[in-house]
Design goal:
With 419 residues, this protein is of the alpha/beta class. It is 43% helix and 12% strand. It contains 17 helices and 11 strands. Strands 5, 6, 7, 8, 9 and 11 form a 6-stranded mixed β-sheet that branches. Helix 2 runs antiparallel to helix 13.
Length: 419
């Protein structure tokens, strides 16, 4: 009987908790309204900046802001919440504003900032009917951050091609006698490994004049052509161009090592440089587009959404959610976010000081920006597949050819689920 009562009580408590969650946030015990804000932000300085903006909003509107930063679990948590139609009041669409979250988002076209989106981010966050899906907090231009002091020390110019990038890595490893690691990846968080494949898939398959874009979209792609990427990545690992602890390293390790001059290149966005600069104020950091792979092609960036704020259309506190987004959209707040994330604003008219990166964004302002490869050419779910397969590749569990075969299998499986 005691066991039965315990189970019954537990079920009753779970039912109560579930009921309390349905429909988004509600008032807290003091009667103050509360909204939840879910973000994919991983960098501590930017988390702190957002919390400070949230505190200012609370003072002005007497609405509590509860931030959640779930990290690698973000995508799975949002999928569960979509299935239950119980989304956060405000959430980051992390590249999927229209495709994945579109039907759950309120239309923000009437907001003052909506007409001021940059020409490059507008097509990403609006549709042909004029719906505005989310506020861009910044605009992604993913390339490769590099320690300019290290490159200068070893007489290396920013590489324009993948072959030049590999030659630079070899030179750095040999001349530093192994004291400087050419590339740092934090494989404990598989997204770091997936980032390499997503960024370099564009110069391999999309940006060249003769490309595989239509073959990928039409389900006619020859996956043997993918094998180049895992072959090169494994080669980088075996030659010591990648940190030895790649499978256990974490994102929190990167700023310290980069600041100390122990890492030359970091593939992805440059947000971590804010922390690195705090550790070593004398650090000189550079930024460059992704080098070309195919002869005759030019370097390019991967881009689109980085961090955004969208409002759940069925939120009990939709008014407050929109107020919060509008508050964050104030120029002084977007300026702070851009400067902390080291990424250009997604709203026109905001002059942000991006520190060391300012001359690089200026230098490469006319460089082509292609949408993230996975968001256009791969079905939903393939990002996790790339991350897991990359871990298995480095662990020696699969070969580059098996990597491509598994990509093909998962590509077809996930595409079929969408039908």
């Amino acid at each position: 009987m005691k066991k039965f009562l315990s189970v019954a009580l537990m079920l009753l408590m779970m039912t109560g908790l579930t009921a309390g969650c349905v429909g988004g946030s509600d008032a807290d015990d003091s009667g103050e309204k509360k909204i939840t804000v879910y973000m994919t932000v991983g960098e501590e300085p930017l988390k702190q900046q957002l919390r400070e903006i949230g505190k200012e909003f609370e003072k002005k509107y007497h609405t509590k802001v509860e931030f959640q930063f779930p990290g690698n679990d973000y995508e799975n948590i949002l999928k569960v919440k979509m299935a239950a139609n119980d989304l956060p009041d405000v959430f980051d669409t992390h590249g999927w504003a229209k495709i994945r979250y579109g039907k759950y988002l309120a239309d923000l076209r009437g907001e003052p900032w909506a007409s001021k989106m940059t020409d490059t981010i507008r097509p990403v966050l609006t549709d042909e009917k004029g719906k505005v899906y989310a506020l861009p907090l910044n605009e992604a231009k993913d390339g490769i951050a590099y320690n300019a002091d290290v490159l200068k020390q070893y007489g290396i110019a920013p590489p324009q091609t993948f072959d030049q990038l590999m030659a630079a890595a070899d030179q750095i490893k040999k001349k530093s006698k192994g004291q400087v690691t050419p590339f740092f990846f934090y494989g404990a968080e598989s997204s770091s490994l997936a980032q390499f494949f997503d960024q370099f898939a564009t110069p391999l398959l999309i940006s060249p004049k003769k490309n595989e874009a239509q073959a990928l979209l039409n389900n006619k792609f020859d996956w043997n052509k993918w094998t180049y990427l895992p072959q090169k990545f494994l080669e980088m690992h075996k030659k010591g161009y990648i940190n030895k602890d790649v499978l256990t390293a974490r994102s929190t390790d990167l700023p310290q090592l980069f600041a100390q001059g122990k890492v030359a290149f970091a593939v992805g966005g440059p947000s971590f440089l804010e922390q690195a600069k705090q550790i070593n104020p004398k650090l000189n950091a550079g930024y460059m587009p992704v080098p070309a792979i195919v002869p005759g092609d030019q370097p390019s960036f991967s881009g689109g959404e980085r961090y955004t704020l969208g409002a759940w259309k069925d939120s009990k506190h939709l008014k407050e959610a929109k107020q919060f987004i509008a508050f964050v959209a104030q120029p002084e707040n977007l300026k702070k976010i851009a400067e902390t994330s080291k990424l250009p604003p997604g709203i026109k008219g905001i002059e942000a000081d991006l520190g060391d990166l300012t001359p690089y964004y200026k230098k490469y302002e006319n460089t082509r920006v292609f949408p993230y490869f996975d968001r256009v050419y791969l079905p939903n779910g393939m990002w996790d597949v790339m991350g897991t397969l990359s871990q298995e590749l480095l662990a020696g569990s699969i070969t580059p050819q098996q990597y491509s075969q598994r990509m093909k299998e998962e590509y077809h499986r996930l595409r079929n689920q969408l039908r």
